Please model this.
Amino acid sequence: MQKAQDILQSRFGHSDFLPGQKQSLESIFNGRSLLAVMPTGGGKSLLYQLPSIMMNGITLVVSPLISLMKDQVDELTRKGIPAVYVNSSLSTEEQNARLQRCMNGEIKLLYIAPERFRSDAFLGMLKNLKIVRMAVDEAHCISEWGHDFRPDYRYLNKFREIMGNPLVTALTATATPRVQKDIITSLGFSIEDVDIHIHGFDRENLVLKVVEAFKEREKTKFVLNWVKEHKGSGIIYVGTRRVAEDVGESLRLVEPNVAVYHAGLEAHERTAAQDAFISSRARVVVATSAFGMGIDKADVRFVIHYNYPGSVEQYYQEIGRAGRDGLTSDCVLLHSYADKRLREFFIDLNYPAPDIIGQVYRTLWSIKANPITMQNSEIAELAGNKIKDYHVAAAIRLLNNAGMTRSIIRGRVVEKLIETPPPFEKVPIDWRHYRMLRQVEEDKLRAMQEFISSKGCRRGYILRYFGEMDSFKCGTCDNCIKPSNTDNNSSSVIKSNPAIALPVLVCIKHLRFPLGKGRLTQIVTGSRDADILKWEADKNPAYGIVSQRQFMVKETIDNMMREGLIQRVSKSDYAVLELTQRGRQIADSINLAKLLSESKDMSSNAAHGSIVNEEKIRLAALKCVSEVDKPIGVKRAAAILTGSKANWIIPSGANKLDVYGRFDTTQEHVREVIISAREKGFLRTIKIDDYPFLELTEKGQNELGGSKGKSIS
Model:
């Protein structure tokens, strides 16, 4: 360790180790493999770079990003540490020359991407190298439970055997206990073979805050005011490419030095945006999650999440890019209910329904060419209007695993391995595993939502999530500064919405077996669904005593989960809801006879308000259908009335309609009203090229014509 301390000062220019580095190095010097879980900026790279200088042989570094490799190798070279990378950006001659230097003993660190192991020639060369340790950077990519799974990482154990089973240093900034175990076993170790070091998640200079912002315009206004009022560099993370462009354009009104970064840009545009931010030519970068890995900028003063990410792992990795210089930095998450729908949409894209997979499967074999060199978007277009390029990618992954297809040339070409395919129902797809992976993503999203709605210390939540400590209070996050006034015997959702919350508690208490949110909603609203009747759920004492719309019941259930009255648990392959201890205490105290009596009065008042609101939405929908330039269906009409920012809105001119963005409610609610208007004869559906569009009936035209004196605002 004394020699390591000397090298730390002479080669790396640091006077002392960061928290966790010394303990991890001691494991390495004791001849142990290790897994180091340390946050972004915690100094993980030093854990393999420094020991490589002291070892007689090569440290092979598996890294997922070419740009990250180049930056690290350039920095090591400046420090006089012999390092090279070998990847697809180099010619074959240059790759061979660098590998020859490794065989000559001139190199201490060799960086490669995991895809490099696909080359038999490269594997042959590896056998001739003296590899004393394998470092696996971004090791969470090896786990299907992780937030950025890469299939090539799963083969590292096999290639480690080819290299003579060198010791391993696995590194990641984001790994829950479940992911940690999966990393270790996937690399071919037992838990006892590996030292696990978890350090540094308590970034005391990061001030965490969640701000409710229900509309995109509220979010944009917040971001503009923040950038005007706060100095220093900042990152604004958004959920989609379109939002990145929109927010970037808005920000330039108050800050001229703004960069935009997302995967839809050309490679040179992404590089230019990244360089502008790192060099501080751009004070703010608006980016999707594609931005950040390998970014080494010490003075980022704020990270704002315009849309929240799909997991706590991703969130903590992204806010970890703030305050690497140790100075106070702000991390603000803007939260709206629509963000949840965006994340659920992404889950649906990555894990589409079996019928969509089957549609892609049949389309692939309808194409005569083999291999297929078409883009995923082109295959999606052939498959039908409901199929997206994401669906094609997901289907091909499943078919690859089932031995039906093989992706080559980095997934740009698909080879069909069977000439005469069986019926889709006979394809050996592991649907149970597929559902499990989807459940993992849903669990991660649920944990992210729990973080957002948590009333306790936000840093404490993160420390518990990653298994570093059980009890913690930072004293600086929004919850610690303004603790909840909610006591243990009352709940704001029960006080604000007893007509829904109390029946839901009664319903769950008297269920014959646990059910999910959708089924609970059907029961309390009196649905005549066949399954509800078959299960005799219509005999539940809370059946049908809520007259409000289902979307309101679902939102109330979400709020009850946030306040700790209900918890979601997994039963077999499905998530169901159960009462927490606190929820059961309240449910046991409810006077059922009194509830049934009071619910009639409360439901009557709520229904009156709902009727008034429904009439306004119906009139606006009729006006929208009559004035929009092109035919629209139910979904697009609802999107217009709620002020959607979808990419078709501006080209269609929908944003210029008087009714655009008129209602601050969910699209689900508006769709229900439009469908009701159709059922009542105000609208009808016509088909144009097999697409259903809305058209006013004579009754609808009369309603619209006679409504000129009525307000729809």
Q: What stands out?
A: Residues 603-705 form a domain with the Arc Repressor Mutant, subunit A fold (CATH 1.10.10.10). The radius of gyration is 28 Å. Residues 484-490, 607-612 have pLDDT under 50 and may be disordered.
